[in-house]
Amino acid sequence: MDYEYYYNNAKNRYYNACSEINSCENRINELKNQKQQKINQINQLKTDIKNNQEALEGVNKIIKSDESLKSKLTGITNKTGLASTNFSKMVSSSNVTNKIITDVFQNESTKTKSTLTNIMQTLTTKKNALTSKITQLQSQLRSAETQLQDIGTAINSTESSLQSWRGTKSSASIDMEYYRRKMNAAV
Fold this sequence. Notes:
By secondary structure, the protein is mostly helical. 94% of the residues lie in helices and 0% in strands. The chain has two helices and no strands. The two termini are 13 Å apart. 6% of the residues are buried.
């Protein structure tokens, strides 16, 4: 029997296993780094989502107050109209030139309504942008969580391969020793 052939075959398996073990260990380290980076990314995405949701809640509260602001502005306009009527009655009983108060404040009232409308339109645009941003961030979060699971699966698979290669190395080492003894005994 040619023990040297079997010894060299076991030796090749041994060195091949050593190479694969190094490769697996390097891959595991690389995957663990990727896992940590992915965890950091997920944490940042969760923070960004929370911050954007809080901003959206604030914008929604302001937008909901729009009706209240409009009703208050209407109330002010109505009270100005009543004041104008009362002022006109007072002026008509005296020799003072009559001024219609609603005409005096009409310009300011129109500007205020226009400004309020512009603010609400801007806030609605911001609300839509925030809603879109939150949806985008949530999509990125789901994707990152899936990638994290894939990395975990890859780590487990590589660790399994590592154990297999360690078994191959051990087996090849035993075979090498066995055939080395057989070669020495044959001499």
